[in-house]
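Two folds, back to back.
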Amino acid sequence: MHHDGVLVARIIVTGGDFPWMHGRVEALPGFDAIRPLFTESEATGAAEDVEAHRRMLAATSLTYPEGDPVAEYWLKIFDDGTCGWRWHDDEPFDD
């Protein structure tokens, strides 16, 4: 995951439950700048909070391990360092 063009976290896949993938987050320098985007969403319990999703997309970008950008994604990062996400290869999700 990138913020302002800088790699700020790596996501390590640990499993999945279609359409969601599960993993753990390796936070790197710079991650603290975007952490509030995820803690706010977790605190409210809003699993499908569209406004929080839009703020997260505006502040971050996600790439595949090979470096190609992910077209659309919904990423939840939890305080325990785990995460869940889903993505689209070609087009944005319907709101």
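---
second:
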Amino acid sequence: MMADKEHLNIDYKKHVEYLQSTKKVLTKRLNERFGKEQGTVLWDKTKRIYEGFVNDMPYTGGNKNFMAHSLYDSIACFAYWEAMPEDRKETVEEFTKTVALVFNGDTSEKKRNPEFLTANNTVLLKAMGVLLRLVFAPMNKAVSSGKWNNAWRLRINPNKPAEGLQMLLFGCPIVDFAQKHGYMDLMPAMCNPDFDNMPELGIHLIRPKTVGMGYPVCDYRFVGDKSEAAKKSPVRMDEKGFLVNDVPYEDKKI
């Protein structure tokens, strides 16, 4: 609703404002860290930085892109981090918690789905693959044509894994932004929260690579958390701080 918008100095025909839930998380974090008075000042600074960031961004579909808030809420998080005084900025670990709250909420309050609504239901996983192909088809076309620049493109199951659903995302405007503005050291905070919601859905996420790590794709594979593939691919942290796991299948095509 327009009444809830911040009415920022951005081109709303090209770009998207961060969600109100994102504002709620970020302002709460600022108030907790700096007190309400300074937190209010820093939120105003965050908004101004956000406006500058967004107005310098290429068009990626705006509100026609159903993944728009993955990008624009990430930009809000970077603006929040930039607004904090240099000597009191969050650590990467603290920033990861902030990003996780923005995108996932408080996962400690969430309960696991009934078993038939988890990734251990292979029929449900197949249906997810069909739905994702349909949803991403317009985005794939818009990005391939150049209209949406380097927004995400999707391929489903290109390696035909024996178990689960593989999703490859090519291109990442969040990484493009981080590279341009010198925030690549914060990319683990953007990538790692992907794992947080998985237990609720009975998903074991296998993700050996992301664009943030320097690869050409983000390689996601969703398997049931009771599957053999899950047992063979425990989550670990690599030397750069990214959560990853080793894949139990050949990966020669990407």
